[in-house]
Specification:
The chain is an all-alpha fold and 104 residues long. It has one domain (2-88). The chain is built from three helices and no strands. The protein has helices spanning 2-18, 26-41, 46-88.
């Protein structure tokens, strides 16, 4: 169940984070171009360097989305654990010798 929730929350966060990684976003363009220039100086072609720069940014988006998903799931588990803790006080007390019949 937790694995499914993490995957779904990661997809949700990834969809939100990708909104900022659009070609018309100047911050994305600056980051991609700067990274592509660094890769081009290391010996890659211009197009391959840009493709790797975009792939590197996408890997970062995936890592951030997964981290946010784990934070969400951890918060849900903490809330559920807290609720269970307080519900434990509402349980009927157990009488250890109450149901036993003594035969003499």
């Amino acid at each position: 169940m937790v694995t499914t929730l993490v995957a779904r929350r990661a997809q949700l966060h990834q969809a939100r984070l990708v909104e900022y990684a659009r070609p018309d976003n100047p911050n994305f363009q600056n980051q991609a171009n700067g990274l592509a220039q660094q890769l081009a100086h290391s010996g890659l072609g211009v197009h391959e360097a840009y493709a790797r720069a975009v792939a590197t940014i996408y890997q970062g988006v995936q890592a951030q989305a997964t981290t946010l998903a784990y934070i969400d799931i951890f918060m849900v588990l903490c809330v559920v654990s807290g609720i269970m803790f307080f519900l434990a006080f509402l349980l009927k007390k157990n009488d250890p010798g109450g149901g036993r019949v003594l035969v003499e």
